[in-house]
Amino acid sequence: MGWTRRGTMAAMSAAAATSGRAATAPAIFDAAVIGAGVFGAWTAWTLKQAGLRVALVDAYGAGHARASSGGESRVIRVSYGGDPLYSPMARDSLAAWDALSARQGLPILHRTGVLWFSPSDDEYMKKSLAWLETSGLPHKAFDRAGLAAAWPQAVFREGESGFLEQASGALIAGRGVQSVVRDAGLQPVILQAGPPRRAGDAYELAPGLSAHSLVYACGPWLPKVFPDLLAGRIVPTRQEVYHFGAAPGDDRFTPAHLPVWADFNNGDLVYGFPDLEGQGFKFAFDAHGPLVDPDTQSRQPSPDGVARARTYLARRFPALAEAPLIHARVCQYENSSNGDFLIDRLPGDDRVWLVGGGSGHGFKHGPAVGRLVADHVLDPGKPVEPRFSLAAKAATQKREIY
Ligand SMILES: Cc1cc2nc3c(=O)[nH]c(=O)nc-3n(C[C@H](O)[C@H](O)[C@H](O)COP(=O)(O)OP(=O)(O)OC[C@H]3O[C@@H](n4cnc5c(N)ncnc54)[C@H](O)[C@@H]3O)c2cc1C
Question: At the topology level of CATH, where does 90-172+234-335 sit?
Answer without folding.
Answer: D-Amino Acid Oxidase; Chain A, domain 2 (3.30.9)
